[in-house]
Design goal:
single chain; four-stranded antiparallel beta sheet; 11 strands; five-stranded antiparallel beta sheet; alpha+beta; about 450 residues
Length: about 450
Amino acid sequence: MNITKTQVDDLNAIVTVAITKEDYSDKVEKVLADYRKNAAISGFRKGAVPMSLIQKQYGKAVLLEEVNKVLQTSLNNYLTTEKLDILGNPLPKVTESIDWDAENFSFDFELGLAPQFSVDLTAKNNVTKFNVIADDKMLNEQVERIQKQYGKLISQAEVKADFEVRGTFTNEEKGINAPANFGLDIFADKKAAKAFIGKKVGDVVTIGTKGLFDDDHKLMDYLKVGHDDVHGLDINVDFTIEEINEIEKAELNQELLDKLFGPGVLSSVEDLKARIKEDAEAQFAQQADQKFLNDVTDFLIETTKFDLPSEFLKRWIQNVGETPLTAEQAEEEYARSEKGLRFQLIEGKVMAENNLQITFEDLKAHTADLIKKQMAQFGQLNPSEDEINGIVARVMSNQDEVKRLSEQVMSEKMLGLYKEKVKAKTKEVNYEQFIKEMYGE
């Protein structure tokens, strides 16, 4: 056995595996001997079939199989021993037909090598880390929402300005069929609000989507259309009225506060607003962290320059699946996956250079924390340690779950590293402003 590597350039190499008769002959003879013991051929007793006949009938197929086993094992061992950082898998180099009647064989494999590069987390950047606050406007709206949610519905015959309507938005062309419940104050377009006044159950109100809300993103909530479709959407939608209700808002008294949060937990409207602010800003912080993580990732992909063995990767993509792709299909797939591959390489470099690792204790603690939060949502505030450990054990017995949770843990570690090292500017915004920043507006 002899394996050699020829460097084509910094990103491509050829590995040649030379196999001699000594590497495979004993294995072939053993397999054929086993075949002979069990062969049932007419005219011969079991186990007494001449080896020459076994060789003639099975020899070539066994030779191919055993040579291939030796080839794959030796190639994998070589890549591991030499610690070659490759992309994709080795591709057999197309050569003339192999002479299987020969005793010695030589096989060439193309390798795509990972590029050498560095990642500078402290470089100058245009990344912003947002501090999202719940402002007074949001707090007042949330308090009013709670009052309405726990208020009394009084059915009415026709729509007035301060009533709520329930029904369904439809538009056949865009495939819109979205149930909704709202008050007329949601509309920035006062003509749209006015169109509902005096209408009754069963009436259909047609309104235009352009300028309907103060933020086009609200079309995603009420019409259930995608983000890419809402900007500048200019169509008419029909709203069929199914219910008309006047809401008698609940009084913000101790009884309501106890019902919402438990006896004596909150004792005033100020306490309620403080609780809403705390919960909202905790949720906003998670969203802001995710945007920060995404923005740093995009920045690193954009500014960390390195070449890839693109032609090799296109050939690998073309042949890696069960059904080979055309060259054009492989080109398209490579274009779609290149950014993701660059991110994987950058992430791997950052993890290696900063010694970011996931331990079993990291994974266990993260899983336990998630389970406690989920149980708290269902009123189980003080589960026992044994109960938590039992659920953790069941979750971590599922390999798919372990992979998903590992990715979450590593994202948290990457986020912590970026917060420490990336020199981003900070900006305080309310939630409406943050949404606009998130969608690039």
